[in-house]
Amino acid sequence: MSAVKLALVIPCYNEEEVLPDTNEKLRRKMTELQNDGKIGEGSRILYVDDGSRDATWALISKFCAEDPRVAGVKLAHNRGHQTALLAGLETAKEFCDCAISLDADLQDDIEVFGQFLEKYENGCEIVYGVRSSREKDTVFKRGTAQGFYKLMKAFGVELVYNHADYRLMSRRALEALGEYQETSLFLRGIVPMIGYKTDCVYYSRGERLAGESKYPLKKMLSFAMDGVTSFSVKPLRLLFSFGVILLILAVIGAITALALGQFVGFWGIFCLIAAASGVHLIAAGVLGEYIGKIYLEAKKRPRYRIETTAGDVAKNPNE
């Protein structure tokens, strides 16, 4: 059996502060894996520049000139982490046997690459990198993350607990991923739907070396909303149920008031109208999310456009 051709896929957005250190560590790790016979010639490090405004692409181009194992893809516009990751995976599947996706800050432990590859050699098509603990997170971060997974589970979305986008996917799994054509991407929900044999590798997540997190609270909330509305219709059903309950309570209240010969005062009426208006606005907002997704999907616009590439990303140069 020939050595595995591995692609490391790293989405980048304004990562000039961390990239030099990241590239050096990944190059050393690739060399180590090659020397140990775990990966073969043609394995690459593939950076995807998601429309960065700093020197990220200049650095990627420099890395490609220095090492033929490094390649780069530059998107024509900032499309978001999930789309940039998909662009990298779709590019990588043309020359690799399997791909490992990870973030540019290397908070995901690269020392478990070997475990990923062992499980791949044992027949796993998808291997999830799962955090063993969240002790290093702030109380707020830990609470919101755990709440997110519980919320998604309650809405019937299949997720791997404490898994982000650190995973290995075989070429077969990558080809299956390409069959999912939605515009609103939530890969953590899509990948488990692929099926095939899967397993997990557990690791301890490190601290970010430099720069700022690309997922502030606003983006995290948007990401969660995308996850819920892309994979579950339960919010619509909950709103319907809540509306029925509210209507029943209103009827009971009206009958009771008439039986007692009492009329609701001004503040009671005001609160009732305010509550009803709030429910209507929430319902309209949730419906708007779903209608907006239908609107985006109906357009059939391309999810991304590649502006340029660096290094050889078209095919395996050794074939």
Descriptive overview:
This protein has 319 residues and is of the alpha/beta class. The protein has two domains: 6-213 and 302-310, Spore Coat Polysaccharide Biosynthesis Protein SpsA, Chain A (Alpha-Beta Complex), CATH 3.90.550; 231-299. It has ten helices and eight strands. The chain has helices spanning 19-35, 56-66, 81-92, 113-121, 139-154, 171-177, 187-194, 217-231, 234-260, 266-299, and strands at residues 6-12, 44-49, 70-75, 98-101, 126-131, 163-170, 198-203, 306-310. Strands 7-5-6-4-1-2-3-8 form an eight-stranded mixed β-sheet, sandwiched between helices. Helix 9 (234-260) packs antiparallel against helix 10 (266-299). The model has no long low-confidence stretch (mean pLDDT 79).
Topology overview:
Elements: E1 6-12, H1 19-35, E2 44-49, H2 56-66, E3 70-75, H3 81-92, E4 98-101, H4 113-121, E5 126-131, H5 139-154, E6 163-170, H6 171-177, H7 187-194, E7 198-203, H8 217-231, H9 234-260, H10 266-299, E8 306-310
Parallel strand pairs: 1-2, 1-4, 2-3, 5-7
Antiparallel strand pairs: 3-8, 4-6, 5-6
What value does the average pLDDT take? 79
Strand-residue proportion = 15-25%
Q: Order of SSEs, N→C?
A: EHEHEHEHEHEHHEHHHE
Helix content, binned percent: 40-55%
Counting helices, strands and paired strands, the structural category is alpha/beta
CATH class of the largest domain: Alpha Beta
CATH superfamily of the largest domain: Spore Coat Polysaccharide Biosynthesis Protein SpsA, Chain A
Q: Describe the sheet with the most strands.
A: 8 strands, mixed
| CATH architectural designation of the largest domain | Alpha-Beta Complex
Strand order within the widest beta sheet: 7-5-6-4-1-2-3-8
> Total number of helical segments?
10
What is the CATH third-level topology name of the largest domain? Spore Coat Polysaccharide Biosynthesis Protein SpsA, Chain A
How far is it from the N-terminal to the C-terminal residue, by CA? 16 Å
